[in-house]
Amino acid sequence: MNAAGESVQRQTEAILTEIDSLLDGAGTDKSRLLSATIWLANMADFNRMNEVWDAWVIEAIHLQEPVSNQNWLPRNSQLRSL
User: Are 3 and 10 in contact (CB under 8 A)?
Assistant: First the structure.
């Protein structure tokens, strides 16, 4: 992946495409991701990056199965659905 010099949207698309490829090579997909950390050189790019990120993540949400049983949670735990 070499999108240096491209817009933050294009760089985000390129990185997420690479992540999809790596996950596929490992026999999995983004619906199994637990977390992600994104480092931006300039926080002014956040909204433009986030538009691409949100579209990519929404695809994964539709692939996930809903959670229906939270009996395993420790007492007084809170679970929020996003």
Answer: yes
Tokens standing for residue 51: 């538009």
Report residue 38 as tokens. Answer: 């994104």
Are the CB atoms for 8 and 49 separated by under 8 Å?
yes
Q: Would you list the domain boundaries of the chain?
A: 8-63
Residue pair 53/38 in contact by the 8 Å Cβ criterion: yes
pLDDT tens digits for 27-66?
999 888 888 888 888 888 999 999 999 899 876 665 544 4
Helix (H, G, I), strand (E, B) or coil at 16: helix
Q: In whole angstroms, what is the distance from residue 9 CA to residue 76 CA? A: 41
In this prediction, residue 71 carries a pLDDT of 54
CA distances 65 to 14, 26, 50, 73, Å, are: 27, 20, 24, 18
